[in-house]
Amino acid sequence: MKSLILSTCAALVLQLSPASAVEHAEAMMRATFKLFNKDSTATCFLLRDGAEVYLVTAAHTFERASGETSILVLREVDQDGVWKRQDKTISIRKGDQALWTKHPKQDLAVMRVKLDLPEGASLPLDVVKSEGFPAFGDPVMLLTYPARVEANGAGFPLARQAVVGSFPAEPMAKHPEFIIDATAWDGDSGGPVFIDAGGGKPQVVGLVISRINHVENIKSERETRKIETPMGLSKALAAPLIFETIRLAKEAAADR
């Protein structure tokens, strides 16, 4: 009888674990979007703090974008269960004035957005890790648009798995970056790095900011060439910086 109960419990675990893994990744996917204009393409995700919704991405995404607007690729499912792409033009500048808030020291920016969003298109702020780094060797997942590629016509991001490759030897306040063993491409910047928090919920532990290359300077009699080779590694910023940047955005809005 005891062995029968154990066998039944094991079968239930096997049945439930994949569903949980799918649920946390899908919840993160629904809140992750492509953000682009003619000079900048990247990944972003949406977080809500009470009634306010903030777009989170790498700061260089906004800085490299020209003009006053970018396109946020939203999605919505119709009554037949088919996902439809919804390109929304959002303001990123008013003249020369940036509408986003950049972290004072790091490549991270947030911007409040006012849009009618589909259900599940933003996640509560409490999904973000509030302190410290993810653990060395931890498996993580990232959602991005590598080389601007979309998973399908609805504009969903692509999922990849990685591990945390760097040990946190210094306090986060001094060195808030960590390394993952995945190659970042153009279009990946700002993508969430996350883990399974349990109960079908994701926990954001960072966001992708850059690729790590091996750089060689090849010299000949007539020329010098710099060759950059991807090492299969990328840098990510620790998630607690998101809280700092949203706080700065709120303070800036209160001063206006």
From TrEMBL:
InterPro entries attached to this UniProt entry:
Peptidase_S1_PA
Where in the sequence is the signal peptide annotated?
A: 1-21
In the record, biological process GO terms are:
proteolysis
Matching SUPFAM superfamilies: Trypsin-like serine proteases
Question: GO MF annotations for this entry?
Answer: peptidase activity
The UniProt entry, under Pfam families, shows:
Trypsin_2
Name the keywords, alphabetized.
Hydrolase, Protease, Signal
Protein's recorded name:
Serine protease
Which organism encodes this protein? Luteolibacter flavescens
